[in-house]
């Protein structure tokens, strides 16, 4: 038999004294240590504890300490992750601003809450590669629906009006080739629009959307935004993100 020496007992007592506060939440580590030391102090010196059993208990204690260390490390990782994440879920890597991470969205197509439409540019022949679309959602059926295209430089100037007539409730899409009241073709760019819907003279609630390609970001440490031409978009307004520009 190999009996623990007084020095080993003193070492365990010293480790116990270094613990200022018991960590009861980690399975009673200090209780285990106290019982272990008490057992060593009160063993029969003429019949000491079996060395195998002693080694087993030491292994259990080491395993407990390893578990405590692992849980401490996990707690620190969780705390670090929370510090690295902003309130909107965008990660802050050290001093890197979240707007730098948003720059990866440049060139991608998005659908967001808003009332703007992106019109493709005219080519040298005065033709447009594609039409654009207005997206909106009618809360209920409407007997008459109109879409006004507004001059971004003058909110009171209506460039074109599309007469859609009666529509059922739900999300709708209406294409537009960029033609104005007088039949001329507008230059490419972002234009504001509004949807006027009514049912037998009573207004029908409408939710409008904007879709198009992200052209840049607006750096701001607290509230960075996406940019679609001159239009600034908050991240919480984004509904869908597509891999790239639509064709």
Overview of this structure, please?
The chain has helices at about 5-20, 30-40, 50-85, 100, and strands at about 110-115, 115-120, 130-140, 140-150, 155-165, 170-175, 190-200, 200-205, 205-215, 215-220, 225-230, 230-235, 240. With about 250 residues, it is α+β, with helices and mostly antiparallel strands. It has two domains: about 5-85, no CATH class; about 100-240, Immunoglobulin-like (Sandwich). The chain has a five-stranded antiparallel sheet, with no helix packed on it. A hairpin with a 2-residue loop joins β4 (about 140-150) and β5. The longest helix has about 35 residues, at about 50-85. The radius of gyration is 35 Å and the shape is elongated.
Properties at a glance:
alpha+beta, 5-stranded antiparallel β-sheet, 4 helices, about 250 residues
CATH architecture of the largest domain, by name, is Sandwich
Beta fraction: 25-35%
Strand line-up in the sheet with most strands: 6-3-9-1-13
Classified by CATH, the class of the largest domain is: Mainly Beta
Quick one: overall form? elongated
Whole-number mean pLDDT: 76
Q: Examine the coordinates and then state which fold CATH places here, giving the name of the CATH topology of the largest domain.
A: Immunoglobulin-like
Q: How many helical stretches?
A: 4
Stretches where pLDDT is under 50 for at least 5 consecutive residues are 22-26, 88-97
Oligomer type: single chain
Briefly note the structural class of the backbone. alpha+beta
Give the SSE string: HHHHEEEEEEEEEEEEE
State the helicity in percent bands: 25-40%
Q: Distance N terminus to C terminus?
A: 83 Å
Sheet with most strands? 5 strands, antiparallel
